[in-house]
Amino acid sequence: MNEPLHVSARPPAVLLVGGLLVLLVALVTVAVSVGAVPIPLRTVWGVALERLSPGLVARDWPEGVARIVWDIRFPRALLAAVTGAGLAAVGAVLQGTTRNALADPYLFGISAGAALGAVTVITRIGDVIGIATLPLAAFLGAALSFVLVLAVSGTDEERRPDRLVLAGVAVSFMLMAATNALIFIGDHRAAHSVVFWMLGGLGLARWDNIWIAVAATAAGLVLFLAQARSLDALLLGEETAKTLGVSPGRLRLILFAGAALVSGVLVSLTGAIGFVGLMIPHVARILVGPLSSRLLVAAALMGACFLVGVDALARTLTAPQELPLGILTSAFGGAFAVWLLRARRGIA
Amino acid sequence: MTHLAVDALTWGPPGAAPVIQGLSFTVPAGVVQGIVGPNGAGKSTLLRCVYRVLRPRTGVVRLGGRDVWTLTPREAACRIAAVVQDGAAPPDLPAREVVALGRTPHRGRFARSGRRDADAIEASLAAVDAIHLAERPVARLSGGERQRIAIARALAQEPDLLVLDEPTNHLDIRHQLELAALMRRLAEGHGKTILVTLHDLALAAEACDQLALMQGGRLVAQGTPAEVLRPALLTAAFGVEAVRDDPAARPFPYRFRLASPIV
């Protein structure tokens, strides 16, 4: 039988959220300051304050430094935070609704679909509508895969978690086959771009595109939190949830659509960043328990902290070379999972 | 006024033969109605129609005179609560949080838990004598305690009708007797109408005011336990012979009752 973790040892929610917010701000500051050109921590917020409200602080840094801080590193740190938060929240929701501990944001072939969209643009279409073409195609690919999964998994009544997971796997493989075929008959650039989708990265972050990620993640979080009560009812099982006035089929459809939107938008900007959406929700569940509203907030904040921190590492470990983010997240995630298994041996 | 009336109820999966057919019975408020019958008789299907998960093919289920399918799912959940067999709560959730989930249909989307919710949760825990278990995670509860918490969760919905599907499954003799006593208390002391399926006929006879015997999707007898648990009917329904024997001559000549009040 499962022995629970010590419930009383859980930190109070306010403390945890406050602590994570402080940690996130600190990590963003450090992430902006480190890199090929190290920048003092004081200058980081000096530049930010100056840009947000000119004249507030005296400028004692060259314009080049301000550019690096404001035009390159801040958008990147922000995208890291938003992506981490979005992926972790989506992972938590999908693990809850499918009752599958291995569910992650790319469950519905989202990353395979995004890769197909991106590869199609690179090998066949070209940047027909400018710089937005690639992310847009990636998003459309992700949306396509989600629609395919829904179509394959059948009617509302049949759309049970196990069928959905299997449908996701099947659609993933079909889309990957198509992507691989395109790469094989295409050119080398395509192969290179696929590596980007597989490993993920935050290199595309710019002020004029991260708002899409911010908006999608914020919308997703609001949607998830609005359904938190229903999600909690689902913890008691499908049948009991129905007797509590929840319609599991409808609830899943709403949440899956929200999850697909968030992960589709994120994957279109960052590629498939592994393990954040898989492991962070598990860690959050250990800290705050299985109830959804607490879990979602904790997972989102922890995901944000994790990805900001890992991206800072990715840019400094092998500087001036930048490590692909996915390598580090997967390495950390895998190592953490091993530790978790050993630490909770015989417990979970 | 909140009596349950099942009228000519028939249900079967789409395109297949009906699983239950032409069931009619009424349960007055504050009465424990037991359903007995062999495996596959359609007892759980009947219950699922009553707690509004299955929509009847024909016939109607009325609570307090109103067709339950004219209620919204949330309205129905505020009037009918069910403890079903799949109801496994997460092992690390404290009992009080499980009971709190029973408030789901009463609460708005973003509304915080209010005084009324807290009162209902405490009252439900008290009704099943589980105040002392409130902080304990589900994994550290015994089978009987878990069942009581599941019932407290249902009571937290503040329902008129409580539906229990095989609540004594996997429970030892003491917990079975405690559960029977609890049902009586909820009906008599709290005015709940209770619909319960039971396998143990002796327990059903003691715990229920009325019994209905089902077989092959139909109601074959209904009335008081004495009227329903008749040897001829049981033989027809279960295919077993009911023998009145000399208790002194049995290898194990005992019956059981609770030795002390519920702890």
From TrEMBL, chain A:
It is found in: Cell membrane. Keywords: Cell membrane, Membrane, Transmembrane, Transmembrane helix, Transport. It is a multi-pass membrane protein. The chain crosses the membrane at residues 12-37, 77-94, 106-125, 131-152, 164-184, 190-205, 210-228, 253-283, 295-317, 323-341. It holds the Pfam family FecCD. Its main location: membrane. The keyword Lyase does not apply. Belongs to the binding-protein-dependent transport system permease family. FecCD subfamily. PANTHER family: FERRIC ENTEROBACTIN TRANSPORT SYSTEM PERMEASE PROTEIN (PTHR30472), PERMEASE OF ABC TRANSPORTER-RELATED (PTHR30472:SF67). This is Iron ABC transporter permease.
Automatic annotation (TrEMBL), chain B:
The keyword Coiled coil does not apply. It holds the Pfam family ABC_tran. GO terms for molecular function: ATP binding. PROSITE patterns: ABC_TRANSPORTER_1, ABC_TRANSPORTER_2. Residues 4-241 form the ABC transporter domain. Signal peptide: none annotated. Keywords: ATP-binding, Nucleotide-binding. The keyword Thylakoid does not apply. CDD domains: ABC_Iron-Siderophores_B12_Hemin. PANTHER family: ABC TRANSPORTER ATP-BINDING PROTEIN, HEMIN IMPORT ATP-BINDING PROTEIN HMUV. Belongs to the ABC transporter superfamily. This is ABC transporter ATP-binding protein. The lineage of its organism: Bacteria, Pseudomonadati, Pseudomonadota, Alphaproteobacteria, Hyphomicrobiales.
